[in-house]
Write a sequence for this structure.
């Protein structure tokens, strides 16, 4: 079975400093991996997606993530945090191939706080 | 192209009542997924449907919960005889195809059971 572990439940950074949100996954297959962001009381927005093409994936709002198979990691980074980045971030893996296996497996989320 | 639509956005029910949550997928999408988010937790998969078919309901509670996606109209998640533990945010997502495809999420329905 596939699973996702987000290593930090809360991360706090100062505006203008780098962001690192850590994610490790376990998978029996070549996974599809995603990062979603959820602002308070809002739905989820897709930040970026990895599907076995380039290992460095660029997303929206300056975020990017690197797929490292040897480390089973898919950490999310941004060079310079903005106040509007304060939200909850979910690392997600797509389960399996074929048949009915279409659902997403979510990590427990990392809440990002950005200090002025 | 409108995104995934969910209504109502907020729903209050008393214990024992029924809750009906509706989801209209993105135009052209025929795959719909329902997820539940309990407070302070990530989303948990409930059910995956295509038009007129339930493909995977492995995440659905065995009792009181049902889902459908008719040929015409939105997908419906129905919770009968609600209990306080059903209070959560329920999110619907849709995709063009299935495995590995990007799922686009709606804004969610926040259910509060009094």
């Amino acid at each position: 079975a596939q699973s996702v572990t987000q290593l930090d439940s809360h991360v706090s950074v100062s505006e203008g400093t780098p962001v690192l949100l850590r994610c490790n996954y376990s998978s029996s297959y070549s996974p599809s991996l995603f990062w979603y962001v959820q602002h308070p009381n809002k739905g989820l927005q897709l930040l970026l997606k990895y599907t076995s093409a380039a290992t460095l994936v660029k997303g929206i709002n300056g975020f990017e993530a690197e797929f490292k198979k040897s480390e089973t990691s898919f950490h999310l980074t941004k060079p310079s945090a903005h106040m509007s980045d304060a939200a909850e971030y979910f690392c997600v893996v797509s389960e399996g191939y074929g048949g009915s296996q279409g659902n997403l497996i979510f990590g427990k989320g990392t809440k990002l706080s950005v200090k002025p | 192209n409108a995104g995934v639509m969910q209504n109502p956005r907020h729903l209050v029910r008393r214990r024992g009542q029924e809750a009906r949550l509706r989801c209209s997928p993105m135009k052209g999408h025929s795959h719909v997924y329902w997820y539940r988010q309990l407070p302070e937790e990530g989303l948990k998969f409930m059910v995956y449907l295509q038009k007129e078919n339930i493909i995977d309901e492995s995440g659905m509670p065995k009792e009181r919960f049902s889902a459908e996606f008719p040929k015409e109209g939105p997908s419906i998640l129905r919770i009968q005889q609600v209990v306080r533990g059903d209070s959560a945010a329920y999110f619907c997502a849709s995709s063009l195809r299935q495995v590995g495809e990007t799922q686009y999420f709606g804004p969610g329905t926040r259910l509060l059971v009094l």
The interface with chain A takes residues 4, 31, 33, 35, 41-45, 48, 55-56, 59, 91, 93, 95, 98-108, 110 of chain B (CB under 8 Å). Chain B has a mean pLDDT of 91.
